[in-house]
Amino acid sequence: MTTSAAAKLVAAREIRMKLRDKTFIFSTVFFLLVAVASTVLPALIEGGPTKVAVSDSAAVTALRNAGLEVSVVPDDAAAERVLRDGDVDAAVVSGPKVLAMDETPADVVGALSASPPVQLLDPDAVNPFLKFVVPFALAFLFFVTSFTFGMQIAQSVTEEKQTRIVEILVSSIPVRALLAGKVGAITLLAFGQIALIALVAFAGIQIADVDTEVVSLVGPAIGWFIPFFVLGFVMLATLWAGVGALAARQEDLAGASTPLQMAVMLPFFAVLFLTDNEPVMRILSYIPFSAPIAMPVRLFNSDAAAWEPVVSLLILAISAAVFLRVGARVYEGSLLRTNGRTSFATAWRTRSTIGS
Amino acid sequence: MTNVLSVNAISRSFGDRQVLKDVTFDVGAGRMTGFVGANGAGKTTTMRIMLGVLGADSGEVRWQGRPLTRDARQSFGYMPEERGLYPKMTVADQIVYLARLHGMSAGDARRSTDALLERLGLSDRSGDLVEKLSLGNQQRVQIAAALVHNPEVLVLDEPFSGLDPLAVDVVLGVLRDRAAAGAPVLFSSHQLDVVERLCDDLVIIADGTIRAAGSRHQLRISHALPRYRIEVGADAGWIRDQPGVTLLELDGAQAVFDLDPGTDDQEVLRAALARGPVRAFGPVAPSLTEIFREVNQ
Known about the structure:
The complex is a heterodimer. Chain A is built from 15 helices and four strands. The radius of gyration of chain A is 28 Å and the shape is elongated. Chain A has two domains: 51-120, no CATH class; 127-349, no CATH class. The two termini of chain A are 15 Å apart. Chain A is mostly helical. In chain A, strand 3 and strand 4 form a beta hairpin. In chain B, a hairpin with a 2-residue loop joins strand 1 and strand 2. The longest helix of chain B is centred in the middle third of the chain and has 16 residues, at 165-180. In chain B, 33% of the residues lie in helices and 29% in strands. Chain B is elongated, with a radius of gyration of 24 Å. In chain B, the strands form three sheets. Chain B has a six-stranded mixed beta sheet, sandwiched between helices. By secondary structure, chain B is α/β, with parallel strands linked by helices. The interface between A and B is medium-sized, with 27 and 31 residues.
């Protein structure tokens, strides 16, 4: 049997087990609910256009043109009554005068007044709200995915070590097939989960008819985000597998994986808090561990030149290839050392003990 | 006879501690070979090297006259000393998965698993998670994991430990079938009586070196002491005064004794006949335990 055929068998088992795992199912359902809630709910809560009762017939046309829901009432007293009853959000009475309960209804006032044309000479490239939300969302997505799924790879490796089945596995198939199958399966699951959530969120946007400006603005950043994400994820995944092999028991895993947890967490917080610090972001966007987050954010803010993501992606690809070897070597060197935690240095040296 | 698994001059050290020194022996086709040695003698290390789980510092393992490759090893069945299964997988799924890792098609793996679980008396547990099984039953599943792909060679590290007598018989039956089909079967054990009862050939290891290897019969002859048992008509106590005799056991008319080198056994027999009837007289073959003790000295 070839290594890739063996890797496929390993991956298939890994995926089957995960799809039966309650934690995985619950987390997927939870994220789907969040996706639905965050796209559909705001539109539902907003509850459509402002309702306004009008007794001054001269104002009706202007209000209707502004897209408000207008109901004509016979007199000022009736207008005030329906407003107090909560049937409308505002009322326009003779004068004309605008009535409202506790807040000036800006859209009603705007519809009735003439405002001069405005021209901004230096507009923000990006809506300030999106400017905060999009980097945060991308960074969060990468952080959560590479952390939770990475931890799952490590746990699955440690489980095989702890239950000692690893010796049977290694006597049947090459260690590399085992590693590749595991990393491949978890990568597929991670991207499957994200794709599903993205699909539901996108459907939610369509159904709720949210301003599509968001989609067109985020689009290019997402386009770059995907290759960065994939390479970054695979790079970390193999390291997670190596870390999982260092631990002999699940209890050791937290300790063994601390350096890697830091390597995932620090870039997240750095990008989160230093988004506005241009020089720092420039550096972060070339470091392999933070590039998957920092470069798409810079692209989104139009801070990066066209060649920059290409170079950064190249660096990431090279380091992914290097870390793939490091992770594999640590994995091979520590997989069969079942007595306690193996140090990184020992794992690195003892690679030769596994037969070919 | 090409289906021989040969261990050729294997040496292995862990740090500065040498655990195997020039280990050499054959596991013949269709032979049940017992691998015995004290704890720490090197049995498990040898088996791990045979299965490619561990590398050797020098020497090689040969199968069918050629150096053993990973592809050839796929047809081996291995039961490691440290037992292991996926606790959260069902019995049948687990065995099918391991069969497929050994290169079986999905259909063959399923059929072989069903047949083997039936034979091991686990059919009604095939849908249960392994962690729900008793230790004895987990042990049977472990045996199934080593046998499911109809291996051409079996290497089993302490296969009978933790098994109840009934399960020992079942497992033994399966192993004998594999041997009868021509597979070399190597199993280690420290229960010497079990090995003595089961195996055709023996390999004895101590301190990382092979002290004795060969067929059980051959070993008994070559390690035979000048020891005899005699049964006479009356009390056999006189024998202790016979020249060249060291009396070991005396029980009324029966006695077991060693002869000094150069003493003629027929001399003793004649002396006995002169005193009355002799019911039995003959050499005593050493038990495996005695051979083991001797080679370990």
